[in-house]
Design goal:
- This protein has six helices and four strands.
- The protein has 131 residues and is an alpha+beta fold.
- The chain has one domain.
- The chain starts with a helix and ends in a 10-residue tail after the last helix.
- The relative contact order is 0.15.
- The model has no long low-confidence stretch (mean pLDDT 86).
């Protein structure tokens, strides 16, 4: 069953969490409607390639990139960077791995999710009261 079939078309989705051991791209291909309608942030894991994985890491990167999503490592979510390049995403899987957890954030919502991350982490910058 596709995510687009499970999620009502009028649902306001902010986050999708995928932990499906190498089947992320298949699930995402069934979520094109919700991804293009509400631009949710997608939390997913991506480890070393498994022999039985039906796709390459570049396929996952390009899926997000073609839909205007940036892939961000968790410790950069609260920062102003543009996300990982394709090379950076691929290299993050090599030893020593940077992470196995990633956020795919739609570029139109990048500032919104950066600010949410800052509030959650308690690092929201405040304007000094004397200004």
């Amino acid at each position: 069953m596709r995510l687009d079939d499970l999620i009502p078309s009028d649902a306001d989705v902010d986050v999708i969490k995928l932990d499906i051991e190498g089947a992320e791209l298949g699930a995402l291909r069934g979520a094109i409607g919700v991804l293009s309608r509400t631009f949710p942030t997608v939390m997913f894991e991506s480890g070393l390639n498994r022999d039985d994985s039906p796709y390459e890491k570049t396929d996952l990167f390009h899926y997000f990139d073609q839909r205007n999503y940036a892939i961000v490592v968790p410790n950069r979510l609260g920062h102003n960077d543009n996300g990982l390049s394709e090379e950076g995403f691929l290299e993050s899987h090599w030893y020593p791995r940077r992470t196995t957890n990633y956020f795919a954030v739609h570029r139109d919502r990048r500032t919104e999710f950066r600010d949410i991350a800052r509030r959650v982490l308690g690092t929201q910058r405040h304007k000094p009261s004397f200004l």
